[in-house]
C-alpha cells in the first residue's frame, strides 16, 4: 500500500482571494510579520500497487480530476508501505 | 524572509465527505487502485523574521485561526531565505 501526498497550489500569476482574506485576519490579530498567504489543497491518497508506473497514474489523476492545470500547479510525493 | 508550509488535515476519526466524493469519482474513472482519499488544506505563509521564536508564532497562528484543532491536526515546515 502506498500513500501519495499531493499538493495543489494556485499558479503564481493567479489571484488568491482566500489567501488575502487570511492574511488580513492575521494582520488584524497582530501577526504583522506575515507578508503573504497562499492557500492550496493537500490530498492524501492511499493506493494499492498499480500495474502502470505509479508516477504515470498519479500525474494522470491530477491532470484529469484533482487539479485544474489552467490555474493550478501540483506536486506530489510517495510514501511506501503504509500500514493503517 | 521565511516561507512556512502548513498542512492542515482532518483528524483520523473525523469523516471526510469531500474525500469520499473524490474517491468515488476516481473509481468511476477506473482508478480502482485508490483505497482512500483525505483532503486537507495546504498554506504557504511568507513571513518576516519574528521577535518571538518562529515555532511559537506559527503554532499560535494555527491554533487561533488556521486550523480548527477540535477536528483538525496541523503540521508545518519552515524554509529559510526566500527571495521572490
TrEMBL record, chains A, B:
* Subcellular location per the Swiss-Prot or TrEMBL entry: Cytoplasm
Q: Name one GO molecular function term.
A: ATP binding
Enzyme Commission number(s): 6.3.5.3
Q: Which residues cross the membrane?
A: none
Keywords attached to this Swiss-Prot or TrEMBL record, sorted alphabetically, are: ATP-binding, Cytoplasm, Ligase, Nucleotide-binding, Purine biosynthesis
**Which Pfam families does its entry note?**
PurS
Among InterPro entries, the record links this protein to: PurS, PurS-like_sf
Q: Which PANTHER family match?
A: PHOSPHORIBOSYLFORMYLGLYCINAMIDINE SYNTHASE SUBUNIT PURS
Function, as annotated, reads:
Part of the phosphoribosylformylglycinamidine synthase complex involved in the purines biosynthetic pathway. Catalyzes the ATP-dependent conversion of formylglycinamide ribonucleotide (FGAR) and glutamine to yield formylglycinamidine ribonucleotide (FGAM) and glutamate. The FGAM synthase complex is composed of three subunits. PurQ produces an ammonia molecule by converting glutamine to glutamate. PurL transfers the ammonia molecule to FGAR to form FGAM in an ATP-dependent manner.
Subunit and interaction comment: Part of the FGAM synthase complex composed of 1 PurL, 1 PurQ and 2 PurS subunits.
Q: What is this protein called?
A: Phosphoribosylformylglycinamidine synthase subunit PurS
Source species: Jeotgalibacillus soli
Amino acid at each position: 500500500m502506498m500513500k501519495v501526498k499531493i499538493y495543489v497550489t494556485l499558479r503564481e500569476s493567479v489571484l488568491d482571494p482566500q489567501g488575502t482574506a487570511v492574511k488580513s485576519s492575521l494582520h488584524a490579530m497582530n501577526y504583522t510579520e506575515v507578508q503573504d498567504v497562499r492557500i492550496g489543497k493537500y490530498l492524501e491518497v492511499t493506493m494499492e500497487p498499480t500495474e502502470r508506473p505509479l508516477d504515470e497514474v498519479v500525474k494522470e489523476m491530477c491532470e484529469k480530476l484533482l487539479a485544474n492545470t489552467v490555474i493550478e500547479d501540483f506536486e506530489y510525493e510517495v510514501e511506501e508501505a503504509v500500514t493503517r
